[in-house]
Structure formats: structure tokens, C-alpha cells
Amino acid sequence: MIRKKDGIHVYQDVKHVLDSRNSIGDTNFVSHAHSDHAFKKNGEIICSKLTEKLLQKRFNADVKRVEHDSIQLIDSGHILGSSAALIDGKILYTGDVSTRDRAYIEGFQPVEAEELIIEATYGIPAYRFPDQEEIERSIQDWVEENSNPLFLFAYALGKAQKIQYLVQEVTERPIIAHGSVLKMNNVLEKHTDLEFNTLPYKENKDLLKEDGIYIGPTSTSKKQYINKLVSQNNGLKAGFSGWALHNSMGYSRYDKAFPFSDHCDFNELVELVEQVEPEKVYTHHGFDEQFASYLRREKGFNARALKNNQSSLTDF
Ligand SMILES: [Zn+2]
User: Fold this and answer.
1) Measured between alpha carbons, how far is 112 from 270 in angstroms, rounded to an integer?
2) DSSP string, 163-205
3) Which stretches within the chain are classed as H helix?
4) Distance between CA atoms of 199 and 164, rounded to whole angstroms?
5) I need a labelling partner for 192 at 20 to 30 A (CA). Which of 11, 82, 219, 297 fits?
6) 65 neighbors 46 (Cβ within 8 angstroms)
7) Nearest Cα to 25, choosing from 42, 50, 8?
8) Which range of residues forms the domain containing residue 79?
9) Residue 36 in 3-state DSSP?
10) pTM (two decimals)
11) Ligand 1: distance of its center to the CA of 30 in Å?
12) Domains in the chain: how many in total?
């Protein structure tokens, strides 16, 4: 039985709790270190080695990574360290997922499973992203074409590092990072081959009056101290998200918004489901209802959206 409560609960021989902030199961799986998935308690969790390090640093969490015979981790291609879980070789839980290679990360490789629990963030046909190489090239072109100070806003873990990586490929201009980005850069520099050479904001903010490039979390795009720097120095602001495709979720407020996403787009979600060839599909998050309905109607899958506290199998 599969239920959505606080996280997703899968009842097999034991109770598996997936991506919950608070619920405790016989096993507790954390797909990645984004805060909407992060285990907020201390204790033993099933996750990748890198996710353990990121959780410890990001949330000061006293978590310890353990393994369980029934859970196999598979890279989910969302951010470094992110994993999908294959439970008892039968139930595949994607967590946040992308099948597209981007910057330095490789996309998820689907495996076959009897049941699939899949995120549906961009689960409607309106969200088909342009070719990834094109998007990355357009980001780099924009950086090269604009010598004014640039202010880039992206999720502090995952997106911010990919953007820094792309920027560093085309320019040696100083990159000045908000503390939350710097903190995550440091963990990745310590545990992977990536290097960011980013400078801390406080000591280097004057570089943003010249040719410096700022990178910070989306929340800082509304901060007065940032907007003052932008307006006084002819700065340009850019955002990076799949939502930028239709300027939704506030992406129209930037001078430039790139549809660079760490999730599958609609076509990729459909392909993923087809490759897994499941007997049952459970969708959750984002356009969950719409995606499940598309899979039923157009592709003949036994699919439904997981809603809070609704049981599944029995009332499928
Ligand atoms: Zn995520």
C-alpha cells in the first residue's frame, strides 16, 4: 500500500517512509538535500553519501547514513547526490528527477519496475523545454554580451552551482556568492571534483560596482541591499527555472529569465514512464492530477495522483 502523508509511506514487509520531514518509518529514505524533502529529525537515514554531507552542513542535521537490503539507490540526475529509490526491486520512487544531462550532471537512467511513484512538477504539455545545450549556450552568450554587473538568482543548492559552472566556462570575471551558495559550494568542492573559486559577498561586494557577477538564492532578488546595488550600477538581474518558460511564478520580474530546470519537462516525464513500463503509476507534486489523467487517457496507463491520506492500491 502506498499513501501520501508527511512524505510518501510505502507499506511492504516493513514501513518505508520516503522524503518526510517528520514521519518515522522502519526505513527513512531522503532523496536529496532540498529543504522540501529534508529530514528534520536526527537519526539514521537512507541516502547517498553526498546527500548525508549536504544535510549535515545545510541544516546542521545530526543524521547518519545507513543502508537497507530492500532499498537500492539510483542517481536521479536532479542535483549531485540526489537518488531515486527502488524498493524490493518492484517499486520505483523517483524523488525529484531529471533525465537530461546538464552542465556537469548526468540525467537519470530509468529502470523497469512494477509500480512507479513519480514527481509531476511540469506534468502538462505546456512545459516542454528548449534543447538544453541551447539554453546553456544562451546563458553563456548573455554573460559574454553584458559587461555590466550581473545578478544571478538560483536555488542555493544545485542550480546555483550549475550556473556558476557555466559562467566560469566563458569568463574570468569575479563571482561573488551569497553565504548560502558558498556553504554548498564548499561541501561540493570537498567531496567532488568541482571547483568554484567564488568570493564571499561581504568582503567583495564592491566588485559588484564594477564587473563582478553575483550569485545568490532567489529570495535575495527582492532584498533592498541587492536592488540598490543593481540600480546604482546598471546591473542586470537573471533567474533560472523551468517556470521561466512562460514567465510564471514571478519570473517576469527579471531582466532575463532562462528556462533552465533541474526537473524533467513534460515529454521527458512521459518517456520516463514509458521506459519504466510500470503496471501502476502514482503521480505527486506539481501537475499531478493532469499528468495522471494524460497517462490514462493518451497512454493507457493505470495512473492516479497520490493525494494526502488517500490510500491507493485498494481504491485504484
Ligand atoms: Zn529538489
Assistant:
1) 14
2) HHHHHHHH--S-EEE-HHHHHHHHHHHHHSS----PEEHHHHG
3) 49-59, 132-145, 159-170, 179-191, 201-204, 224-232, 266-276, 288-299
4) 12
5) 219
6) yes
7) 8
8) 2-126+263-315
9) coil
10) 0.94
11) 11
12) 2
